[in-house]
Structures are given as structure tokens and as C-alpha cells.
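Section 5.1 Outputs to date
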Amino acid sequence: MTDIAVIFADPANWAALAALVTMEVVLGIDNLIFISILTNKLPEAYRARARMIGIGLALGMRLVLLSLIAFIVTLTRPVFEIIGHPLSWRDIILVAGGLFLVWKATKEIHHNVDQHDEGDMFDAKKAGLGFGAAIVQIILLDLVFSIDSIITAVGMTDHVPIMFIAVIAAVATMMTAAGPLSRFIEKNPTIVMLALAFLFMIGMTLIAEGFGVHVPKGYIYAAMAFSALVEGLNMVQRRARQRKAQ
């Protein structure tokens, strides 16, 4: 039997694969929300291509990092201390990524609140610059989310083939959901503010994780699900009022 056949002959590894696929899909939600909001700022002709490039890069980064798994594991080793707190390269990457997300979410919230703000780098009149800027920012966040994703995978199983299958399945799900999610966000402006708030919260969580404060992911996603449910009820109420007014 081949190594893969031996691995999947054990029912426990099937359970590990199911758990890891679920975890990777959940972790991919953060990445997908960011890509959806960012690409929606581009002219419509560029959006689908930018989404596919962004998600394709996410897959490529994850597969490359899996092939360098021995190196990835070393990223969790402390390299220096700040005020008595040891920091590894993973911590530094998480803090940097968190700061970037907080900055980006704050900037976009300000732009949504102040419609006269002219500092938007994604102005449709600057389509070429906007597309390039979008891809660069997607690459930066893909790197942060990819490293977090792979380190999570390493903690759940020792079998690299299971990690590869889980990552590919999760990214395939992202590709399927990217278009509908982007269109839903575009058609429901209030969802944009909620999604930006999610990104801000995720950024703060990444910073906390980088400084060794573990925030259970279940709490974060439960808060996101509850907020989305409340906003969904608000949307139903608004549509009911509009129908009644007609």
C-alpha cells in the first residue's frame, strides 16, 4: 500500500481530515471577507479577476508553505523579547498583519462615513493603480492568513497529505463563495460596515495573538454569527417596511 493509502486506512485520519477542512474553511472566512471588500472597491470589470487572483495566491501560498513545513514550524520559536515577552517570527507576522487590518478597516470605515473623503486609493478613475494596490494588499494579508492557517494545520495532524487535501478543499470553497459573497456585500451597504467591523475585530485579535494573548476562535466566530443574524433581521425588517410603503 502507498503511504496515502495507509494514512486513509485509519478512520481517525478521516476524522482529522473532516475537522481540519472545517477549521480551514472557518479560518478562510476572514481572508474571504477582506478580499470581497477590497475587490468591490474596484471597477466592476476588474472584480472577478482580482478575486480569482487573490484566492489563487492564497492557495499557492498555503501549498508553498506546506512544502516548507519544517521551516514553518521554526517560526514559532522565540527570536527576541519585548518587555520580558518572547516574540517569534509568527508573532511578528501576526502583529504586523493585525495592525494592517486595523488600519485598513479604520480607513474604509472613515471613507464610508465621510463620503466626501477624496483619499480613496480605489477611485474608479485610477483603475490601473487601484487594481495593483488591491493585489498587493491581498498578497500581504494572504501571507498572514496562510501562515496562521498552516500552523493551525500542523497542530491538528502530523500527516502532510491530509493538510494538502484540507487546504485545497478550503480554498475551493472560498472560490465558490467569493462571487456570491461579494455581490451580497455590494447589494447591502449596511453589510459593508458590519464586515469592516469584523475585519477590525480580527485585526485586534491577531495583534493579541502575536503578544501571546490567546483568544478562542469560537468566541470570535460566535460574535460574528450573532451580529450577522441581527443584521439579517434588520434587513428583513427594512424590506418589509419598503413593501408596506409601496
